[in-house]
């Protein structure tokens, strides 16, 4: 088992649960986590749009969590695991770095949102990167070809 990938998968799972909290608790949670006033207002008005958008994020984060757990050998190996983890790691790292460029021009979010969400994504990405680096030789390439 790879502890870094277990942490990475756990972080993605916690993020998914926090997004479920936004769906359940509504506008107050959307505001607290910096989703933007528009999302909060839509949630207050009973629009399904915030729920749909947030549900897609929950599914994506849950899949990412499963891939990290699979690479850590907690669950059976998922298909295309190497490619998937490279993509997941890259997305977390790129989002983490790119978000810092929006602090001075926050485009509908607060500078604090961009700072904290970028820091979180960067941390998630680094756990994935170092865990994947350790685990790479142990990941079977057999399922990659199927």
Question: Would you write up a description of this structure?
Answer:
- With 146 residues, this protein is an all-alpha fold.
- 71% of the residues lie in helices and 0% in strands.
- The chain contains six helices and no strands.
- Helix 4 crosses helix 5 (81-99).
- The two termini are 25 Å apart.
Regions with little confidence, pLDDT below 50 for 5+ residues = none
Give me the number of helical elements. 6
For the largest beta-sheet, the strand count, sense and barrel status come to: none
Mean pLDDT: 93
Outline type: globular
Distance between the termini: 25 Å
- What helical percentage do the residues reach? over 70%
Element-by-element helix/strand order:
HHHHHH
Report strand %. Answer: under 5%
- Rg value: 17 Å
The assigned structural class equals mainly alpha
Give a count of the beta strands, DSSP E runs of length 2 or more.
0
Write the layout of secondary structure elements.
Layout: H1 3-25, H2 27-32, H3 37-44, H4 49-71, H5 81-99, H6 111-135
Helix pairs in contact: 1-4, 1-6, 4-5, 5-6
């Amino acid at each position: 088992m790879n502890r870094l990938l277990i942490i990475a998968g756990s972080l993605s799972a916690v993020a998914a649960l926090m997004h479920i909290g936004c769906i359940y608790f509504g506008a107050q949670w959307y505001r607290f986590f910096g989703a933007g006033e528009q999302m909060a207002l839509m949630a207050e008005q009973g629009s399904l749009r915030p729920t749909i958008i947030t549900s897609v994020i929950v599914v994506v984060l849950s899949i990412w969590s499963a891939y990290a757990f699979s690479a850590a050998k907690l669950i059976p190996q998922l298909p295309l695991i190497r490619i998937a983890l490279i993509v997941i790691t890259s997305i977390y790292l790129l989002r983490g770095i790119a978000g810092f460029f929006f602090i001075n021009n926050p485009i509908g979010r607060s500078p604090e949102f961009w700072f904290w969400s970028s820091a979180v994504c960067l941390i998630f990405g680094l756990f994935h990167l170092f865990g994947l680096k350790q685990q790479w030789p142990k990941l079977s390439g057999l399922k990659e070809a199927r």
